């Protein structure tokens, strides 16, 4: 395991109020980074920069999985994830020096563990947990099995994951992760040790509440996105997919739907299905592209297509499309059904139904004026809900709420009430 610490401590030299007008906050962020950097890592980086711009004193402790480079190493990490004392000690060492008001945990698996919250609260810090994935209830973190949504462990025993080898196809590994989930569920970690939770969507909030997370402590706050500026003017042309070329993303259904509608869709991304999709009449595979190239493609497209077959957390491609004034055609599943207002900011299609998706794609292609109107509505949603200043104010409010809750609990403990 390796760890790195990034610190920006403005409050030692300035008492200027934060962006929400309140007193400066000291925030310690803890995050177990992924070996292949993805959406969660990018979201944490954006939040750190936004908090710094908002006037907070910020320190981040990053734990890295680089040493987990073999099947035995993955198993060892999974079995240590229930408590992970080394990771917790690294974060708490930073907390003793930095003296934060809030310890904000993002990904805790496998080098940190949910036990970080008990340690932080014992030291007197308010605690916040962002629920980027479903790991506290699901061994693979996705609520997905055999290519379809699965919620058997949400309200049932997490050891069901062992039967299906849900964690990396390993029953032993699944046992280790199920043990972590079961331990913290039985120990009351989520009810006792976390002051506030951050869910990315209303759909996610419902799932976590069903899994036993106290609903009254869950706040909905999407990941923020800096404003790329006004959407480009002029006519739009073509349909766009941005993401991993893998089964759960629905790219096989997308290819079938595009061919049925007589359309070709530009697909930006890489993945295990790239070879199988090469030369398909419905797709133009563009491979990986830089963020700047993706943003430019978003601004030219008539619509972005998100044909997922699983419960997406909060796909930032939707926020990016809305910021670019681009409507979204998405599957009517999980959070996507709430992120896209059918007929207003895009269109919804039945997940896995190539015919229904083809009809939605054809509607975009044959009604450019309607698509443009949906794009304008999408941009308005971005400005209201996803623009960085909006989401940063929401996060600061959650922090202050957590600090107040922690202070109230401490007062009750002192008086013995």
Query: Helix share of residues?
Result: 40-55%
- Rg over CA atoms, rounded to whole Å, is 22 Å
Strand order of the largest sheet: 1-3-2-4-5-8-9
Give the number of helices: 17
Structural class: alpha/beta
Report the biggest beta sheet as strand number plus sense, adding barrel if it closes: 7 strands, mixed
Question: How would you sum up this structure, described in words?
Answer:
The protein is of the alpha/beta class. It has helices at residues 39-53, 71-80, 85-98, 116-122, 152-155, 160-164, 171-187, 189-192, 202-210, 251-261, 274-277, 291-300, 316-323, 336-339, 354-366, 368-386, 388-415; strands at residues 2-8, 26-32, 57-64, 102-105, 126-131, 144-145, 148-149, 196-199, 218-220, 239-242, 265-268, 283-287, 303-306, 328-331, 346-349. A 7-stranded mixed β-sheet has the order 1-3-2-4-5-8-9, sandwiched between helices. A 6-stranded parallel β-sheet has the order 12-11-10-13-14-15, with helices on both faces. Strands 6-7 form a two-stranded antiparallel ribbon. β6 and β7 form a beta hairpin. The longest helix is centred in the last third of the chain and has 28 residues, at 388-415.
Concise summary:
The protein is of the alpha/beta class and 417 residues long.
List the SSEs and their pairings:
Elements: E1 2-8, E2 26-32, H1 39-53, E3 57-64, H2 71-80, H3 85-98, E4 102-105, H4 116-122, E5 126-131, E6 144-145, E7 148-149, H5 152-155, H6 160-164, H7 171-187, H8 189-192, E8 196-199, H9 202-210, E9 218-220, E10 239-242, H10 251-261, E11 265-268, H11 274-277, E12 283-287, H12 291-300, E13 303-306, H13 316-323, E14 328-331, H14 336-339, E15 346-349, H15 354-366, H16 368-386, H17 388-415
Parallel strand pairs: 2-3, 2-4, 4-5, 5-8, 8-9, 10-11, 10-13, 11-12, 13-14, 14-15
Antiparallel strand pairs: 1-3, 6-7
